[in-house]
Amino acid sequence: MINNKFNKKFVRLNNQPLILILLSSLAFLLILFRLIYLQVLNHQKYQNMSDQNRIRLIATEPIRGRIIDKNGEVLANSKLNYSLVVKPQIINQKIWDSYKYKLAKLLNLDVDKLDSKYNNFNTGNQRFSIKLSDSLSIEQLIRFKENERDFKGIEIAEKVIRNYPYKTLAAHALGYTSPVTELEFKILSKKGYRLNDLIGRTGVEHAYEDYLRGQWGGEMIEVDAAGNYQKSLGVKPSKKGRDVKLTIDLKLQQVAEEVLLDKKGGALIAMDPRDGAIRAIASKPTFDLNFFSREFKPEKEYNELFFSEKKPLFNRALNAYDPGSVWKIVTALAGLESGKFPADILLETKPCITYGSQCFREHNDLGFGFIGYEDALRVSSNTFFYQVGYGVGVDEIYKISKKLGFSQLSGIELSEQENRGLIANSEWAKSGRGWGDPGTTPWIPEDIASMSIGQFVVQVTPIQLAKAYAAIANGGYLVKPHLSKLHVSGDDIKRKKIEINPKNIITIQNGLKKVVQSGTGVAINYGTINLPPVSGKTGTAEDGTGGADHAWFVCYSPSENSELVVVAFAENTPGGGSVHALPMARKILEAWHGNN
């Protein structure tokens, strides 16, 4: 009995080495499989994770390209902005109380504002950096650097910001930048953008974003487990954005801004009728482009910019308005091209002519007797053009307007700001005029009278008028308005011949000459500088929205071989185009011909 127990115990003892070997082998196999999993199957994954822990990338922000005028004057560039920041994890309230008075005195800052920023943003010490003052001057920067050792925990932060030396000049044309948002980053990151990277929002900044933005660079460094620098693994310099040269002339642009100063609102465009190059484009009210470069934007300024009834962000040069009598060249061409009213026709002008239930008056309440096209333009007769418009019909006027570029985008780079306008036609009326049910808003006789002189059922933009009058000035070619030659290449440079009889264009040219020689635009010659011959048209338009009258004057100079078309528009400025808009254009012509 005793032997049996001993034998069983002996057998169990003899099996222990085998069990130990099996367990060891199993453990080894598990380790082997784990190593294969880590080193072979998932080598790249863990290699990347290791590199991320070992390698750091220090990104280098690119410098955005400059925007310059046609003579190389800088209109937009980039500069370093210096801010004063405090590290709340280093400076407690007691230390801050000893710093704030010294800091305020050293940098000539308001101590109460400094204290307010520190305390308002330091609740619970949840922030790692509090901005005390933005945009330090060079003098303040030097003063702080000389005394930096006395303010442990207070630093200077540098940031590249967009800068506009002339602030409000050509604001709507230049446009502004702002940081990429988190929502946008999900898409733009694929194009190389980073969170809070600057991107053009409007104007040239937006249109030429790919030219201006540049490319990020950086340095790869190796660090140890504690995060200490070991060595540099390579440097890729950031690539500066390309400069964009505009067709704008800075001096002429400054004059364009000046002529709008005493106006409630309005726009001015100066364009080369030979190729569409914009020499000046201004809109009022305007705004300071540097507002968008600030990190802190006061609520009052923000509200005035985005919610003001004056709408300073609204580009009047590309918005649609009732054109009034400057539209009469379209009605005239419709009469000529249709053949119903040839160039030598004479029509009797009267105190008023009845269409539908309304008598449409002549602006002098008398009429001008029997006159032809040239004199009708010279004196801006309403009743002459009522008869022509009614005789040819709405669709003939619409057809000519399309040939001249109305009711469509002009082609300028600022398409995000541009309004197509409205040119009425019978199909538009039949379909409901944009607000009614089809068949309930038919064309009526009163419509054609209004349309003939550019009222109510006609809405055009200053840039469209510049394009149309350029076609008259250059003898019948549509050009593409542009702010940079980068926007026009190949076929775009070629002028497009309009399908209008050149003889009919000459009739319009002769009439526009007479306007300035002895008609409603004769005051253009009352200046201190003797101008080359000017051709143009005045216009006074009732505001279809119920506001005060608009004032217009469109002209080109010299009358032969023209080199500048000017569109002057004074919004809700009653008194007539010859009184308010014409002097604006005269100052532009004086500046242009005086400098050239």
Question: Any overview of this molecule?
Answer:
The protein has 596 residues and is of the alpha+beta class. It folds into 3 domains: 50-80 and 160-245, Penicillin-binding protein 2a (Domain 2) (Alpha-Beta Complex), CATH 3.90.1310.10; 88-152, no CATH class; 250-595, DD-peptidase/beta-lactamase superfamily (Beta-lactamase, 3-Layer(aba) Sandwich), CATH 3.40.710.10. The strands form 8 sheets. Strands 2, 3, 4, 5 and 10 form a 5-stranded mixed beta sheet that branches. A 5-stranded antiparallel beta sheet has the order 12-11-23-22-21, with helices on both faces. Strand 2 and strand 3 (74-86) form a beta hairpin. It is elongated, with a radius of gyration of 36 Å. The N and C termini lie far apart (131 Å). The model has no long low-confidence stretch (mean pLDDT 89).
Q: How many domains in all?
A: 3
Distance between the termini: 131 Å
Number of strands: 23
Unreliable stretches, pLDDT < 50, 5 or more residues? Answer: none
The proportion of residues forming helix, as a percent range, comes to 25-40%
- The CATH class name of the largest domain reads Alpha Beta
User: What characterizes the major β-sheet?
Assistant: 5 strands, mixed
The CATH superfamily title of the largest domain = DD-peptidase/beta-lactamase superfamily
* CATH architectural grouping of the largest domain: 3-Layer(aba) Sandwich
Q: Given the C-alpha coordinates, what overall shape results?
A: elongated
